Amino acid sequence: MDTLEELRSQIDEIDRDILKLLNRRMKVSYEIGRIKAELGQDIVDPSREEKVLVKLASSNRGPLLDKTLKAIYREIFSGSRALQSPLTVAFFGPIGTYTHEAAVERFGHSAGFLPCSTIGDVFEQVMQDGATFGVVPVENSIEGSVRETLDRLMTSSVGICGEISLRITHALMNLSGKIEDVRQVMSHPQALAQCRQWLTRTLPAIPLVETSTTVKAAEHAVTDKYIAAVGSERLAVKLGLQAVSSGIQDRAENITRFLVLGRMKPPSTGHDKTSIVFWTEDKPGALFKILERFAMHGINLSRIQSRPDRGGMPWKYAFFVDLEGHRDDSGISACLKDMSSRDTLVKVLGSFPVHSLPDEN
């Protein structure tokens, strides 16, 4: 049986081999980026990255976990993109928010990240080429849609080129980690709403104060021992706070979906989603006739929601719809043409690969 020192020596040798192979891969990746630039192709290719991950996962025999494999390659992809071309990703909120976490999940730590104080600022950065991509929240499984994101999508020239889904786990955190020190609870309105039942049951007499982000709440908690914040436990560790209680969200499956904004148009992968917004005539049966078009073309709708039209007449509504499939698929393409021919204003927000929720195991 090998001794501890002999095993460590084997690890050192393997690490040297891994490093050589990583640098070899990066050199090839750099050449691919050069050729893409000459051909005018996008540096980011989510469909190619997904194919690589699927192929590797199918060949993985362990003991390396698939989720670990994906995390490693997320950073390899990120490093490759950084060599090929500088990449700036704008996101809503300061460093440490869930939106920042989603951006890192999608683009890895090698990307350049640009925090924005509002969702509108993220759209503006992408529109004005201050950022290659933007990341904004669009819906939560408990609290529903993020209205500002939908409103911006109605009028912005920026499209959707990806999505990220994250499980959201909230903790109550303060300086001492003791619940008896809590005199006030602060957080973003969405975070407070997602933990409303727990807070009402556990701290019924404690006032709840809304902040612009969960990070702002945590920063207040750092300066006042009687303030507790609701947010990511990872954020608590970063700022030196202690968890009073973990997993305080009202539902175990608390999931937030984020959109990746940009100008690129990902090709079909066979597992895609298309987001559109349309406006109907203001007369009886108008919405029914449009929904009937989807059924006639055999298109499944995964989501539909109405919002008041921004910049239009009062009581006029826009309808956001997610379709299963890609805009270039024959059925969806025919349906969109059919809708447009019936005096329905349709705006295709984007087609992009469906993002599967990361495995917890």
Could you please describe the fold and organization of this structure?
It is a single chain. The protein has helices at residues 4-39, 46-59, 66-84, 98-107, 119-127, 147-155, 189-194, 196-202, 214-223, 233-239, 286-296, 330-340; strands at 88-92, 112-116, 133-140, 144-145, 159-167, 171-174, 184-187, 208-210, 227-231, 242-246, 255-262, 272-279, 301-308, 317-324, 345-353. It is α/β, with parallel strands linked by helices and 361 residues long. The chain folds into four domains: 4-80, Chorismate Mutase Domain, subunit A; 88-168 and 255-261, Periplasmic binding protein-like II (D-Maltodextrin-Binding Protein, domain 2); 171-246, D-Maltodextrin-Binding Protein, domain 2 (3-Layer(aba) Sandwich), CATH 3.40.190.10; 268-353, 2-Layer Sandwich (Alpha-Beta Plaits). Strands 1, 2, 3, 4, 5 and 11 form a six-stranded mixed sheet that branches. The chain has a five-stranded mixed sheet with strand order 8-7-9-6-10. A hairpin with an 8-residue loop joins strand 13 (301-308) and strand 14 (317-324). Helix 1 (4-39) packs across helix 3 (66-84) and helix 2 (46-59) packs antiparallel against helix 3. It is globular. The model has no long low-confidence stretch (mean pLDDT 89).
